[in-house]
Amino acid sequence: xxxxxxxxxxxxxxxxxxxxxxxxxxxxxxxxxxxxxxxxxxxxxxxxxxxxxxxxxxxxxxxxxxxxxxxxxxxxxxxxxxxxxxxxxxxxxxxxxxxxxxxxxxxxxxxxxxxxxxxxxxxxxxxxxxxxxxxxxxxxxxxxxxxxxxxxxxxxxxxxxxxxxxxxxxxxxxxxxxxxxxxxxxxxxxxxxxxxxxxxxxxxxxxxxxxxxxxxxxxxxxxxxxxxxxxxxxxxxxxxxxxxxxxxxxxxxxxxxxxxxxxxxxxxxxxxxxxxxxxxxxxxxxxxxxxxxxxxxxxxxxxxxxxxxxxxxxxxxxxxxxxxxxxxxxxxxxxxxxxxxxxxxxxxxxxxxxxxxxxxxxxxxxxxxxxxxxxxxxxxxxxxxxxxxxxxxxxxxxxxxxxxxxxxxxxxxxxxxxxxxxxxxxxxxxxxxxxxxxxxxxxxxxxxxxxxxxxxxxxxxxxxxxxxxxxxxxxxxxxxxxxxxxxxxxxxxxxxxxxxxxxxxxxxxxxxxxxxxxxxxxxxxxxxxxxxxxxxxxxxxxxxxxxxxxxxxxxx
Length: 556
Fold this sequence. Notes:
Layout lengths: L1 H22 L19 H38 L3 H5 L1 H20 L1 H4 L3 H20 L5 H37 L3 H12 L6 H15 L2 H15 L4 H18 L8 H8 L5 H30 L8 H6 L7 H24 L3 H16 L2 H6 L33 H5 L5 H18 L2 H13 L3 H11 L5 H11 L8 H13 L8 H10 L3 H30 L1
C-alpha cells in the first residue's frame, strides 16, 4: 500500500508539471499523431488524459494488490489450518478455489498492465491452492488423509512430469538444430520459393505445421515452425505474431486427426474409445476445415495490414539475406528430423510414453554433434573441438574441467538459449487445474454441462471445447471419458470430443501448450491474441463441428 501511495504521488507530480507547462504556453507533443500542439489549443483534453491515466494507474495497482492479497490469505489459511469451518466446508472450498483461479487468469490477461509475470502468478496460485487443499485432508491428524493427499498430488505430478520430460528435450532438439544451422536449409527454400512475398509465408507454414503436427505432435511442430518463422520474418514483429497465431491454430487442428498428434486424442486412443483408421477417416476433413477457415481470414487480415508488395525478380531475391547452406547444416536437419520422427514410431511399436522417445532423440543428436568428424564437417575451430577421439595411445585425455567454457560446436551452448518461462507458466497452470480437479469442481462442471445440454453430443462437446480454452483439456476429456463410458468405440461422441477439445484450445492463447509456447517464444500478449486471433480460431472451431455433422449426414 505504501508503494502504491508513493507511485500515485509521483503521478500527481507529473500531472502538475504537464499542466503548468501547458499554462505557460510551451509546446506539447501529446497529440495522437505525434505532432506538436500550439499554445492555447487542446489544453483541457490533455489534462483529462493525464487525469484518466492516473485513475487507470490506480485501478491497475489496486487490482494487483487485491489479487496478491487474496493469494496470500488463501496460503496463510492453509498453512495455519484455521478456521476449520472454512477448510472443511466443501462449498466454501469450491467457491474459493474457483475465485482464486479466475483472479489468476485476470492477472495473466493483464500481465502487461499490472507488471507481474504470468509464470510467477500461476506458480503462486497453484501453491496457494494446493496448500489450502492439503489442510482439508488433515495429514498430521489422519494417516488416511495423508495417503489421500499424496495420491492426489502424485496424480497431478505425473501429468506435470510427463510434460516437463517431453518439453525440455523437445526444445533442446529444436534449439540444437537451429544452433548448428539446420533450419537454414528450410529457410533458404522458403525465402526462395516465396520470392520475398510475406503473404505467401502464412499458408506455406500453416499447412506444413498442420501435417507435421499429425506426424509428431502439436507441441514439437509449433516449436519447429516458430523457429522457421523467426528466420524468415526476423524484422517484422507484427507478421511473426499474426503468422504465429495461425501456426497455433494449425498445430492444434493437425493434432486432432492423428492418435499421436495431441494428448487428448492419445488419451482417447489408449482408453480404447477411438481407433486409428476411423479417427483419420472421420476427423481429417473437419480438422482441415478448422485450419483453412482461420487461415483464409488471417491471410486477408495480414494482407490488409501489410504494405503492398510485388513479386521481386530473381536477381533481387538473390541479393536478399538468404542463408548459406553447408553439408553440416543438411546433416543436422536430417538427423534431427529423423530423431523427432522416431518418437511416434517408438510409441506405436513399444507403447512407451512420448517423452522417452524425445529423450532418446536428444541423446542421439547430442552424440552425433559431439563427434570429431562432425566438428570437421561443420568447420568448428580446432581449439573448440573435443579431441578425445584423436588422442594417441598412452596419452592422458582431458578432464571435463577443460571444457568449463562451452565451445561453439556444443549442444550445451544451445541449451543456454532455451526460454523456460513458458514451461514454468504451463506447470503452474497444470498444478492449478489439478487442484480444481481434486476439489471436485471439474466433475461438477461436467455434470452441469450434461444437465444443460441433455443428450445432445454436439452441444456437450461444443461447450467442452470452448471450456478447454480456459481450463486444460486433459481433465475435461477425462471427465468426458468417465461420463460416457457406456459408449462403444468410434462412437460420434468420442470423435466430437477429440475434435472439440483439440481445436477449442486455440480460441485463447492459454488454452493449449502450443499457445503458451507462442507466448513464450514470441512474447505474444493475451489481449493481443484475443483481439487478432481468437475470433478466427472460434470460426475455425465452429467450421470443424459443422463439417463433422455434414459428414455424419452424408456418409454415416
